[in-house]
């Protein structure tokens, strides 16, 4: 479904497939044989079904693009529970064809694989930073109020930007030192990222000086004080 809708919306889906050895390729037609790909080849794409349901597929894709219908409602319509739906079948055929093209390009192009891995590494790094910042209550928003959720997201974005800004300034100061000016090449600088948090303590710092006493007055045990009443109650219980 993802490959099909991305194709209809005019952009290309570039996922990183971990179990790529188990992926299947679909034939464009039966006129050509591919003996070298026989172990991974499957059936032929049903182009006729795609042509029959093309108008309906475009209608749903347009609704997604224009926002005239909720994205979740549209995607829930095309799940495995509705596998007999004709539009679902057509989208599945289009998705299989698009995915087959992507797999061929992915296996053939080293540059494409590097682009996908680099982009996804950036996203995963960013998500790790978000989990590090938004650690309260397991990172879940324990409210259904839209206003509270919006405030939480705005605070998260503010801390994100502050983290990146401070880290950028610190990295600039280090790179300005003469000891580092000639040690880093272009590839090294490409690997530098301001989305690091190993030097940050999200829980705050508590500095204790065990050689000094807290500035608290000594307890007063007058006849009406709480301490005197507790001591009296203790004496009565112990006889």
Automatic annotation (TrEMBL):
Gene Ontology biological process terms, A to Z: DNA transposition
GO molecular function (one): transposase activity
Chain ranges of the Tn3 transposase DDE domain: 1-206
Domain of life: Bacteria
InterPro entries: Tn3_Tnp_DDE_dom
The protein's name in its UniProt record: Mobile element protein
Source organism of the structure: Granulicella sibirica
């Amino acid at each position: 479904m993802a490959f099909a809708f991305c194709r209809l919306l005019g952009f290309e889906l570039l996922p990183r497939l971990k179990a790529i050895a188990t992926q299947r390729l679909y034939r464009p037609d039966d006129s050509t044989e591919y003996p070298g790909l026989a172990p991974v080849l499957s059936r032929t794409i049903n182009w006729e079904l795609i042509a029959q349901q093309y108008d309906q597929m475009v209608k749903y894709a347009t609704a997604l693009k224009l926002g005239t219908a909720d994205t979740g409602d549209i995607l829930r319509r095309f799940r495995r529970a509705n596998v007999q739906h004709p539009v679902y079948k057509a989208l599945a055929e289009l998705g299989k064809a698009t995915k087959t093209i992507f797999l061929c390009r992915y296996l053939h192009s080293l540059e494409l694989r590097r682009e996908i891995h680099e982009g996804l590494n950036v996203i995963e790094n960013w998500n790790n930073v978000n989990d590090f910042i938004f650690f309260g209550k397991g990172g879940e928003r324990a409210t259904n109020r839209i206003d509270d959720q919006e405030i939480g997201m705005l605070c998260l974005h503010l801390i994100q930007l502050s983290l990146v800004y401070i880290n950028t300034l610190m990295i600039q100061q280090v790179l300005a030192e003469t000891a580092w000016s000639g040690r880093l090449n272009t590839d090294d600088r490409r690997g530098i990222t301001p989305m690091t948090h190993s030097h940050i303590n999200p829980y705050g710092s508590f500095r204790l000086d065990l050689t000094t006493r807290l500035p608290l007055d000594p307890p007063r045990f007058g006849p009406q004080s709480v301490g005197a009443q507790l001591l009296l109650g203790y004496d009565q219980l112990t006889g």
